Amino acid sequence: MKKNVGILLLFLLLGWLAGAWIAKALEPVQALSFLTASTKLEWSPQANLDIISYDITIKFKMSLLSLIGIIVSVWLYRRL
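Above: the chain's sequence. Below: its structure in token form.
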């Protein structure tokens, strides 16, 4: 399989998503709260230029399990 940036981004996205799903499934377990606690990052650029205006909101939710998923996905990508 040929390695390229698109495949790396796909692996990163899938690793992040898998980590987020696992974190969401483990939220009720109090002993693992340090793994499932998430930090939210938000970026909201906006402009009003008389003829055109835009308002975009991008939100990222990152937990320790999401970070572990990203690390595992990079490891798997390097093993290809």
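Residues 5-79 form one domain.
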